[in-house]
Task: structure prediction
Amino acid sequence: MSVLAYLDPGSGSMILQVLLGGVAGVAVSIKMFGKRIFRVLAFWKRDKDSDEGSAEESA
Amino acid sequence: MSSEARADTGSFRDRDGRVVVAGDEVFRVLSERGAEDWRALAGSPLSSRLSGGDGLVATEEVGAGALPDGAAELLPGGVSAVLRHERVPFVSYPYEWTFGMLRDAALLQLDLGLEALGAGLSLKDATPYNVQFRGARPVFIDIGSFERLREGEPWPGYRQFCMLYLNPLLLQAYRDVPFQPRLRGSLEGISPGEAARLLRLRDRLRRGVLSHVVLHARLERRYEGSEGGELKHEIGKANFKPELIEANLRGLRKLVSRLGWKAGDTAWTGYREDNTYSDADAERKAAFVREAAAAKRPGLVWDMGCNDGAYSRIAAEHADRVVAFDHDHATVEALYRSLREEGNERILPLVADLADPSPGLGWRGMERRRLEDRGSPDLVLALALVHHVSITANVPIAELLDWLHGLGAALVVEFPKREDPMVRRLLSGKREGSNADYELDTFERELERRFAVERREELPSGSRVLYLVRP
Result:
């Protein structure tokens, strides 16, 4: 882990750099935020199927 | 070495290096890590610039024996390497620069950043206080800013670049608001949030604003409380590549190179006081200045109220260096453009108001030094100046001469008499009887009290008098 340089780079500024990165930045963004997006999607999907699922289980 | 070492009062934030001044020499002491970063720089293609003359200050590594006494204690972890830098002729700060000067400094900063990236290096920070001017040429002086590239880390200097370079330039280019007072008032610069509030809604359509200002401001606020270290770690794990930094630097370079400021029509640009002169007057004045410079052979000349720089150029024929000051930044910008075009390294144009010169600023009021402490001139030109300071700025003649005397230099001063057309114009806006001390005999009496008058010449038209005096 590198020691922080004397200059505070600013959290928002670091994220902006990722966004400004264009195509390469998208790849980095997905890696960073991807897990969270996936979890949200997965949860939503399971939610949709859950009625059928629980109906099957209880049957 | 017996010369006394003095740590430069503006160099203390970086724990890996400090600038030390001893007599006429400038050294930089480096910690172990700083020394490793230096060796990486010296072994890279950028090293060709280290001989000076190509954007970087001339630098060489010297042995510890060259170090002045006491300098070794200046770094907490001890000194691992010592560098010697070429001395900058006259230190200046971004709040004294014109639009074009700040812009060219920004381009230099970005170009060096790109070149460093290609060599596996990066620049720790991005501040115009790392750039100085030799005449009209910008020179990057903070060699300690170069470090080995850290894989997976975003560019730490981006926010600072926006605050100290980009936002001031955008403010002036898009809103015609001069940045000098803001940079003098805040050494940190203009934050993204401030810039977003200062720009109009329609400016969001202009180049660079949506991303570097508006979005930047939103993200800054949104992630204000975030743990920076943790975020850096995450970005690194997500495979942040130097290519992203390169893309950002290139985008900024394109943006900055296209920023233009149409120097507004101010009362000065294009108007030379000598317009009210006869040709004979202008000729005699030029000869007087030339002879004074030739006689004094000054190392440093201050031309106060330089206007279009005509007399700076004359003085430069016999002087090592000239600093040309004017309080109107549009005038100085015009002078800078012409000096830059000829690649002039002898005349440094700066924005300064005699009645309000740059004070000491920053930590202990000494981080950025006051104007009078940055190098005593050997010759001062105060041409077409005294009436403006005395009548418009209302500074009493006696006090003005005290200040000039305090500079400790030979002086060429011009006194336009009360009947001079420009003086009459300045007085016309004032009440009857004001500026009673503005009289030739008063001026000469006060002058003779403080100086030895070496030469006196009344110009052919009869309305102005020139003096060459010494303290």
In short: Residues 273-470 of chain B form a domain with the Rossmann fold fold (CATH 3.40.50.150).
